[in-house]
Specification:
CATH architecture: 3-Layer(aba) Sandwich
Order of helices and strands: EHEHEHEHE
Structural class: alpha/beta
GO molecular function, one term: oxidoreductase activity, acting on the CH-OH group of donors, NAD or NADP as acceptor
Number of domains: 1
Strand order of the largest sheet: 1-5-2-3-4
InterPro entries: NAD(P)-bd_dom_sf, NADPH_pterin_aldehyde_rdct
Distance between the termini: 16 Å
GO cellular component, one term: cytosol
Number of helices: 4
Shape: globular
Amino acid sequence: MASTGGGGGGGAAIAAAAAEELRAMANGGHHKTALITGVGRGLGRALTIEMAGRGHTVFGFSRDFYDLESVGLILCSDPDHRHVLFHLDVRDDEAVYLFAHNAIGSRHHRTIELQIID
């Protein structure tokens, strides 16, 4: 599993690491499942839309409901409806635990192959 972000390297470092991962996934032809935080705005939003457009499944978080809803409207054109977006603050440990246990562990049975923490 690849993980980007959280190291204080700024948006450019996150974008470079994510772009490298996207290239690797495109070359392998394998569709992956990604967990992306900050999907409502900026880099997280752009990466969510790009990865969904390349056929990957996105589990996304955003603290702002309206930003999350706007991304959801873009992704709803996916005929497979494979993306899962959550109104969630990743600073809330209990909410993240409940998401991991209930959404991924029980209902979707997916392995997160890529994490982009924005």
